[in-house]
Design brief:
With 268 residues, the chain is mainly beta. The chain has one domain (2-267): Outer membrane phospholipase (ompla), Chain C (Beta Barrel). It has six helices and 14 strands. The chain has helices spanning 11-14, 26-29, 35-38, 185-192, 240-244, 246-249, and strands spanning 2-5, 42-54, 61-74, 78-81, 84-91, 95-104, 125-136, 139-148, 156-164, 166-169, 172-183, 209-224, 227-238, 256-267. A twelve-stranded antiparallel β-barrel has the order 2-3-4-5-6-7-8-9-11-12-13-14. It is globular and about 60 Å long. The protein starts with a strand and ends with a strand.
Length: 268
Amino acid sequence: MSIIAAGSATGVSANDVDASFGGKPIYIQADEFEDDRKKDSWAGQIGFGLSVAPRFVGADEHVASVGFDLKVSYKGTIFLENNRIGALLYKNRFVRAGAIARWNLGRIDNGSLSLLETIPEIDDAFEVGIFAATSLYKLFLTTEIYFGASDDFSGTSVEVEAGYTFEPTSKWRVTPILGAVWSSSAFLDTFYGVEEGNPDFEAFRPNGGLSEAYFELATERRFGENWLFKGSFRFSELLGGAADSPIVRSAGGSRDQLQTFVGIVWLF
C-alpha cells in the first residue's frame, strides 16, 4: 500500500472514497446530545482535519488530503451526515427506522494513476434506501440498504455494523465497530467488473455476496464546552466477487483498504 499527499484542497476531489466517517451514525448519536443542544431545532457538529483513503475502491494507492466532517440533526428527525441524508420515520424505545440516501463518488480518472487508463470511469451517482437501528445503553446495531437510482449505477448493497462506546473518562469516548457489506452482482459489476476486450484485464463478472468486512475504531476527546478532538481508523478487507476482480488483484489494486480521519470538531 502506498500513501501520497493530495494536491487538492478537499478529500472529495483528491480521491473517490469518502473518508469523512467515524463513530455512531447521526440517527443514533442525536439521542446523546446534551439537553442544552436539544433545546435548539438544529444540532450537530462540523470538523476539519486530515484524511487518508484509497484513490478509488479497490485501489492500492491511498491519498492523504484535507478532510471535512459534518453531522447535523433537525429535531432528531431529519439528518445530514457527510454524503448521506435521511429522515427518521419510526421510533420507539428500542428501534429507529427511516429513509436514507447517499451520494456515491464513483471512479474518475484524474490522470495520476495508469491503472485507470483501461478501466471505465464511473460517474457520481445518487443512491436511495432505508435504514433500521437499535441501541441499548452504549451498544448499537444498524442496517442500511441502498439501491442505485441511475442508469449507469445500479444494484443493491446492504451495510450492517455493530459498536459499543467505552468512556475511560467523562471527556473521552472510544467506540470500536465491526461491520460487513453485502452487494448484489449488479452493484459489484459497476466497480469491479471488466468488459470483454479490455487490453490489460481479463473479462470478469462478479457474483453477488459478502463483499467487505471492516473494523473501525473511533475516538473523541473533549477539550472545551463545544470542541472535540476526533480520530477514526478503519481497516477493510474486500471479499468474494470484489476481492476476485482483476482490478483488485492487479499491481495497482489491493484487497486491503485503509481509511483514517483526524481532526478538530466544533459542536453546535
